[in-house]
Amino acid sequence: MTHNHHKTNETGHGNETGHATQVRSGACATMQYTDKVIELKDIGFSHSNGKVVLEGVDFQLLQRQRLGLTGSNGSGKTTIFHVIMGLLKPQSGEVTVFGKKRLQQEDFIDVRRRIGLLFQDSDDQLFCPTVLEDVAFGPLNLGMTHAEAIRIVKQTCELLGLGGFEHRVTHRLSGGEKRLCALATIAAMTPEVLLLDEPTAGLDADSISRIVSFLNNYSMTHVIISHEIGFLKEVTDSVLVLRSGRFCALDN
User: What's the CA gap between 171 and 92, in Å, rounded?
Assistant: First the structure.
């Protein structure tokens, strides 16, 4: 099982729809892509109150590709992540992950084992008493021994600037520390793909720098939602913009 608790709604404004346009940025621009990891075709999603969030959205992610996703609140960015993970069921369209169409809830079990999702709200992700227990939860569920899990916890915490935090009470951490802890719970499971929803929210410059180093030092397929365009340019090779159903260019 994954280390994910979740909300299934994204707050938004009005009857916005989402379409994507890709804008090149600097990092890894020469990366050669191979197999499709995720493909969404003609996705439509509306909330129960009738608000349209996504309408006719196409999206794909290729192996080793690193994408940024930005746009106004309510444009559907978080909803796309939740559709990929099977946390929300679209009213129309096709979801294909790792080459297999995903139709029923059971189809997403292995998706959640292979893709790590960082939720927008860290409290949705952290539910153990201490940092050590939270970060070890995933590795232990993957069948690692206690000793292996502890080794991975220490290694992951050091990478993200949480060395010495292992026995801290999770819910007494600051917002930024919780964010790093939530990312550590995902990274410790060594997923094939990372979906990170606002990973730098509440972080200081030093913590953001650690995340940049972490993402750039590992050849991992990932999609990152952020309003921080400078950050996205450091850790992605292209950016998708969702804005009220219109294709739009990314201002330099």
Answer: 39
